[in-house]
Design brief:
The structure is a homodimer.
Chain A (H helix, E strand, L loop, with lengths): L3 H8 L3 H8 L7 H14 L5 H6 L6 E6 L5 H15 L4 E6 L4 H13 L4 E4 L7 H8 L3 E4 L9 E5 L1 H14 L5 E6 L4 H16 L9 E4 L4 H13 L6 E4 L2 H13 L9 E5 L13 E4 L2 H18 L8 E5 L2 E3 L8
Parallel strand pairs in A: 1-2, 1-3, 3-4, 4-5, 5-11, 6-7, 6-8, 8-9, 9-10
Antiparallel strand pairs in A: 10-12
Helix pairs in contact in A: 1-2, 1-3, 2-3, 5-12, 6-7, 8-9, 10-11
The structure holds a DNA duplex (16 and 16 nucleotides).
DNA sequence: TTGAAAGCGCTAACAC
DNA sequence: GTGTTAGCGCTTTCAA
């Protein structure tokens, strides 16, 4: 590896002159610059980034943590983030947490040790204290999920509003026994979505019996599957179903097909998110479409903007909430 | 950022002792080690990678280039790579090329400047010369696609065999007019898949008229859509269809629904890959399932192994070919 | 068993 | 306009 010192020796100048010439410092004469640049080129000189970073140069890498890329929802997020970052000349370092705080911590360590300039995180329900400490040591934003320990910068969707909308649609269609398949309230998003369901029912004066509210782990299709089986086995099964996560929806859809449930005749279903294929599932899935691409892109740009502003620029707590949109297809009908 | 010096000050020892304690040097007493480790933990100490690299340590980052994460196929690949890398304590730096050599080059530059230890690449059809030069300067493997300019290490699928299998299945079922919707032969994979189609037909003594062979850009759903429209408009439309890329399949499936084509009564269809939802598309999609998870994981492990072997270990050209598997569902039938 | 000190390649403050 | 020097955080001699 050729170093600046080698180049300096070759042209008979000092290392600092070489450094300045290559960074186009105005104090260096054009003749010298030309000589240095030519030498550097022929010698195949490439600046050592590690050394630069030791001098405090900030990296051009942004870290991203998502729960699971094999989940189309998060893959789309990663895609949008990647697009926004690279088109602004940033690199992306990626980690999947699998919703496991220990894996999340491992990534956080890796990121800090790799000296990333900032991080965009979809946090797990309870990040390890060390994770919090590590992330807090660098500029970061929370995406989709929000935990109190991390900095109060958050880009997410209106979870309560989305599920409320879905539930209200079913209520308006005349349904009274409406099942809810969602995530545990550990995750703020899980709690918020359940709230949307309960609020909509309460507003309409409809009870929400426990047997109709099925909660499970966040990224699990199995929970969706099991929930369908449980609901169908009830003495008085629901006439409609609201799902409150992408994976839950997936599981529900598969299981409904397996049980050959007549949708929407016997059961109306509203999904969460809008994944490829859902438009052709059975009669077409009525669902809450989420503007996750814009959300992710905006989030990335916000972070880059903050980085550009410098570490001193004190930023007040900030949150941006996007709304979902009900897409009507064939899986719901009035009764 | 907490440094080793900070930790040393906290425990009243020297930097070198701290360094040794953390690297489990046998010369340090267990008591001291414990003290240092405890302090490092509470203080959130993470070794500065840049400094380590200046001392000759290689980075723990592997670069990955895929065409497009919003494509479930590549998202799965990224997921598998990420799993294999992080479980071996490597970080992943990710770039999406969008199949554009210029974007690919930008990523290659970023990777080299970020001093990644190696790269896993799904290359574009014609990488820029600079990209080739940059990638060649570091250990790398090609995944799925293979271009001659890069090093001859490749993990991919038997494209020809996969499509041949799909085509033969249709021939065996009695079909004679079989359409082919695939990618341009620019990409070796596109060429190989088309070969599989032609070979199967040739073996059965069936002609492959140009009007039935529709080629388009690799990552385009639109091509799949347009192809369906074109084929249906033919005077003598095909009775069966082979698709030769995931995105083409997606487009075809959507368009068939839009045109309300009776599958498999009027048209048999074999897809490429097996994405979520394809099992419930119409009568269930008969398709070629690809072992991309294992493929990606194996590829990552191979690269890590080579890195562990050191830069001197000369490796002979290597390629690993995985086969697809025909999954029979409802979208094909005999005539 | 621990400490002191050198030095990796680079940049920036301070000479001249 | 160019050179000298210090020091980023770490590992690794060399001392003690």
């Amino acid at each position: 590896m050729t170093t600046a010192r080698d180049v300096a020796a070759a042209v008979g100048l000092s290392v600092s002159t070489v450094g300045r010439a290559l960074s186009d410092d105005p104090r260096i004469s054009d003749a010298t610059k030309a000589r240095v640049i030519a030498a550097a080129e022929t010698m195949g000189y490439v600046a050592n980034r590690a050394a630069r970073m030791m001098r405090g140069a900030s990296s051009d890498v942004i870290a991203v943590i998502v729960p699971d890329l094999s989940n189309g929802f998060y893959a789309t997020i990663a895609h949008a983030l990647s697009g926004a970052l690279t088109s602004n000349n940033w690199q992306l370092m990626l980690g999947e947490s699998a919703d496991d705080p220990r894996i999340e911590r491992r990534h956080a360590r890796g990121f800090v040790s790799a000296q990333v300039a900032g991080a965009i995180v979809v946090p797990t329900a309870r990040p390890a204290p060390e994770t919090v400490q590590l992330l807090t040591s660098l500029p970061h934003v929370q995406l989709l999920r929000r935990v109190g320990q991390l900095k109060p910068y958050w880009f997410g969707i209106d979870d309560t509003g989305a599920i409320r909308q879905a539930t209200e649609h079913l209520i308006t269609s005349g349904h009274r026994r409406i099942g809810f398949v969602g995530g545990t309230p550990d995750l703020p998003t899980g709690a918020a979505r359940q709230r949307g369901y309960r609020e909509a029912l309460a507003d309409a004066g409809i009870p929400a019996p426990d047997e109709l509210v099925l909660l499970g782990p966040p990224l699990s299709m199995d929970h969706g599957r099991a929930a369908v089986a449980r609901l169908l086995a009830l003495q008085d099964p629901p006439t409609a179903l609201v799902t409150a996560s992408v994976q839950a929806t997936r599981g529900v859809l598969e299981e409904l097909l397996r049980h050959e449930v007549a949708v929407p005749q016997d059961l109306s279903v509203v999904g969460f998110g809008d994944e490829p294929g859902w438009s052709w599932w059975g009669p077409g899935l009525t669902t809450i479409a989420l503007p996750i691409q814009q959300l992710a892109a905006t989030c990335a740009l916000w972070l880059l903007d903050r980085l550009a502003a410098g570490p001193d620029a004190h930023t007040a707590a900030y949150s941006s909430v996007s709304s979902g949109e009900l897409v009507l297809r064939g899986s719901t009908r009035g009764i």
